[in-house]
Amino acid sequence: MSQLAGQLGIDWRLLLSQAVNFFLLLLVLRIFVYKPLLKLLRDRREKIENGLMKAEEAGRRLEAAEEEHRRRLKDAEAAAVGILRKAETDAKGLEERLVAAARKKEADELAKIGAALRAKEEESRRAVEAEAVAFVKSVVAKTVELSPESVDDALVARAVKELKQAAS
Amino acid sequence: MQPISIRAEVIFRIGGFPVTNATLLGFITFVLLASVALALRKRLALVPGRIQNAAEIVAEGSLDLMQSVLGTRRQAEKYFPLIFTVFLFVVSANWLGLLPGVSSVVIRAPDGAVVPLLRSPASDLNFTFALALIVVTFANAFGVAATGLGARLRFFFNLKGPIDFFVGILELISEFAKIISFAFRLFGNIFAGEVLLAIMAFLMPYLAPLPFMLLEVFVGFIQAFIFGMLTLVFVSMAISHGDDSDGHGREKVGQISHA
User: Fold this and answer.
1) Domain ranges within chain A, ordered by starting residue
2) Which position among B26, B60, B67, B189 has the lowest Cβ density within 10 Å, counted as fewest Cβ atoms?
3) What is the CA radius of gyration of chain B?
């Protein structure tokens, strides 16, 4: 066996030196290349995965924000329509109240004016009546003072003349 | 023409330690790869440059291939250093062995013979045996780490029945056979290539060796790839042999070995 190994050039010292050579290379490559390179690849893979996840998350958030924006806009539009309707209703109510108050005031004023006119009219009527009474009294007095025959025509003419004057 | 020798030639001695031309080129390969590693370490950044990009493409491709065999990315990253170093060391050594000057630059050895200064490491059985021993030892160590010593021993010494026991013994023998097949496959291919190139260069020194050189570049890569893939499959079988009752692992080894 050892003769065969010798003929093939197998020498345990050379074999060991090649093995040591390989182990040294494995050690150097492991420390200076494999570890940092694999770590770098892992880090990059993680960063890419995180980036993709964040991008997806951002997309989802953007979509949610847009949905929220649309919802709020819709709510705001509904609220605005509600406010407008309420304002319209309030304005109508106010208008009705104002109109009613104005009408009431108008009616009150008309009633006051009517009462004042009626009072004036009553006062005028009373004054006319008083004057008529006084006139009649004076006519009667004058009539009583004259003889009926001489007085009749002149009396009637005078009474008519005074009545016309009083009427004008 | 230089005499063809299966044995790597001793070119000098350090104390009593013989240094062969294959050992020297193996050491040069180590120095070159270590230098590249150190240079690459300084340039590593999250945003890669050209060199880092190339390294990442190779690493990612290898990891994907390993993941397809081992099952998970975590497992692939765990066993990546050993498997990729085996591939890288073998392919670098094979290609460095094809450079002009290797085998043609000669020196006078301590015993007075004129020998090449450099020789492809894989054309020396010490190199291939060393790698084969390391790979098989590591595969078994990974198997013990993954399934436990008891399970690993039961895999080889199965007492469930006579057939299982016999299969277990065959598995144990196959572990040693793996070392031999590993070592001789790589040695045979690379040594044969060197011999072919030497003969072609002797017969027709100009242009004629060129296609054979290209062929050897391809063979050098393929043999390194096979070495790496077999390492991967052996590790895969070792860490999951409990689930390998259908013999899929053996089929994988058979397919790669035929290559």
Assistant:
1) 2-167
2) B60
3) 21
Are A41 and B8 an interchain contact pair (Cβ–Cβ within 8 Å)?
Answer: no
Contacts of B121 in chain A (CB under 8 A): 18
Contact residues, chain B, for A8 at CB < 8 Å:
6-7, 125
For residue A41, the chain B residues in CB contact (below 8 A) are 56, 59-60, 63
- Chain B residues closer than 8 Å to A36 by CB: 41, 44
pLDDT above 60: residue B242:
no
Residues of chain A with pLDDT under 70: 146-152
Band of residue B11 on the pLDDT scale cut at 50, 70, 90: confident
How many CB atoms are located within 10 Å of the residue B87 CB?
21
pLDDT, position B246: 46
Q: In 10 A of CB B233, how many CB atoms?
A: 23
Collapsed DSSP state (helix, strand, coil) of residue A13:
helix
Residue-averaged pLDDT of chain B: 87
How far is B178 from B134, CA to CA, in rounded Å? 12
- Which band of pLDDT confidence, cut at 50, 70 and 90, is reported for residue B216? very high
To the nearest 10°, the Cα dihedral for B69, B73, B78, B83? 40
**Helix H or strand E encompassing B34:** helix B21-43
Contact B33 A25 (CB under 8 A): yes
Distance (Å) of CA A116 to CA A113, A128, B223, B231, B246: 5, 18, 134, 129, 127
- Chosen for mutation from A1, A8, A14 (greatest number of chain B CBs closer than 10 Å) is A14
The distance of B206 to chain A (nearest Cα, Å) reads 32
* Residue A166: per-residue pLDDT: 78
**Chain centroid, CA B213 distance in Å:** 20
Q: Any idea what DSSP says for residue B242?
A: G
- Distance, CA of A146 to chain centre: 92
Distance (Å) of CA A97 to CA A83, A88, A89: 20, 14, 12
Closest residue to A21, CB basis, from B18, B27, B60: B27
Of residues A11, A34, A43, nearest to B80 (C-beta): A34
**Per-residue pLDDT at A106:** 93
